[in-house]
Amino acid sequence: MLTLTEEDRSILGGEFGPMAARAMKILVRYGEATGATEFVSIRSAHIDGCLYHGPSSIDFAQSFVKLGGLVRVPTTLNVAAADVTHPEWHCGDPSTLNEQKKLTDFYTQIGCIPSLTCAPYQRLVRPQFGDHIAWAESNAIVFANSILGARTDRYGDFADLCAALTGRVPLVGLHRDENRHPELLVTVPKVSETKLPRDLYFGATGYLLGLCAKGKIPYVRGLPEDASEDELKALGAAGASSGSLALFHAEHLTPETHDINASHLPHLEFSSDELGAVIDDHCSAKTGDPVAAICLGTPHYSKDEFIRLSDTIIGRKKAPSVDFYVSTSREIAEHINTHSRFAPLREFGVRLIVDTCTYLAPVVDRRDGYILTTSAKYAHYGPGNLNRRIALMTLERCINAAVAGKVAPC
Amino acid sequence: MLIRAQNFTHGNAVGSLIALSAPLSLWGGFDTKSGKIIDQHHPQHGISIAQKIVAMPYARGSSSSSSALLEAARLGNAPAAFIMTRADPILTIGALLADEIYQKKICILVIPQADWCHLGHAKWANILPTGSPKTVDIRVSRI
Fold first, then answer.
1. Substitution target from B67, B86, B102, B105 for chain A, most A beta carbons within 10 A
2. Which of A245, A292, A308, B94 gives a 20 to 30 Å CA spacing to A226?
3. pTM surpassing 0.95?
4. Mean pLDDT, to the nearest integer, of A110-131?
5. Where does the record place the Phosphomevalonate dehydratase small subunit-like domain (chain B) (predicted)?
6. Predicted ipTM?
7. Given CB atoms, is B63 within the 8 Å cutoff of chain A?
8. What is the pLDDT of residue A82?
9. What is the DSSP secondary-structure string of B25-88?
């Protein structure tokens, strides 16, 4: 039985305006569907519904905007369906650009910050340990829960907006202490024990974790203690693509591992061969095969990842036949575009694509070659979304291919 | 064969049942324009789930799946029902909005894990009221 507080009832009754009232009405039904007994206040929201999927995206947003009002908590926007700042790169349906602009405008009119990034945790202000938040976008959810120790359930489109408009969410799922405990122990081989280079190791591990955890919360033992945020980001994003990974605990790495005794949990052990097979399954390309493009930045590239990329390509130049795209946020792109430290990126011919991701916004025109990526998430969704051949490989091999104009040797 | 299910949205559907042998992300794994599964890693890649009663062990992947479900509902390509062994808030809210905006009913049903084995060979399902809005009975048959 769902019990509403006085605040909840006043939102529902219209004291905070008709938009909040409608959002609360939907949240009550949503809360009932999740078995909630009460609501909890949130500190921020991250909205995924700003990605244009078709006329229904507009119908939904418009049905709220016409009521008038503003979000009640700081609210950021997830990626859009196109980079409206570079219409010349867009090779999908031309109407998407205008419809996307319209949709983004709707959300900014009600007070959302047009961050247009799938990595809101890379912004200056990020959630604190223990904060309740309502984030959508599967990689942001797993990052916030696992690496920041903030608390968000797996919000989908629409629930995220209702949460932002009311500042309230049902106190269920990963908002509750008892639902954040690990349910299985997963031992993974050390990087050095696998045949994988480090930048594929995390994606492969995350991908297998998503497949094997089957929605349960894993406690992962064996990851390198110096794993970076970017590496854990890749792991989480992969697991949220192959499965529904929304929280993982990693021994010595994540903030909620202190009191955990994992020894009594059901135990899974990943082998080096299994991790290798994940990469093989997502890389059918052979040395010498044609390459149309390199696409990095799924999830959005961080400043640290740009530093590594810049240092790796310094003094080199890509083949004119190959496009080289890196997806990131406007905020990070602004930094990269204005600092001389990143001049090698411009000399190499890297295009920074903002607001979106190249696995959903079609920007690669050439159809006769592979799209190469370092992201397991991209390799998972790319083939279905883009109907293209995608191959997952190391950054170094991607860059060598960009220079050679064809798939380079391992 | 009757299976008691928890009902998270609306109660009625009848039609052919497709039991997916792996979970599916509606966004990225399903084409709203054709109603087909486009996830190339999915064992049932290529089949249509439009207006079908879809059984899958649990939902998977993207938070955009609620938008994909709403857009599919607008186009008449949404499944008529989902039968899962675990509740899924993302599909639930997509179904709630499909009703509110387009008056399209999509059942979101959760059955006990132990009953999952009865769905594998089923071809047809009829979702029947029980008297309580919170539950339904699913009658499954092999023809």
1. B67
2. A245
3. no
4. 96
5. 24-99
6. 0.88
7. yes
8. 97
9. -HHHHB-TTT-BB--TTSTTTT-B-TTSEEE-SS--S-TTHHHHHHHHHHTT-S-SEEEESS--
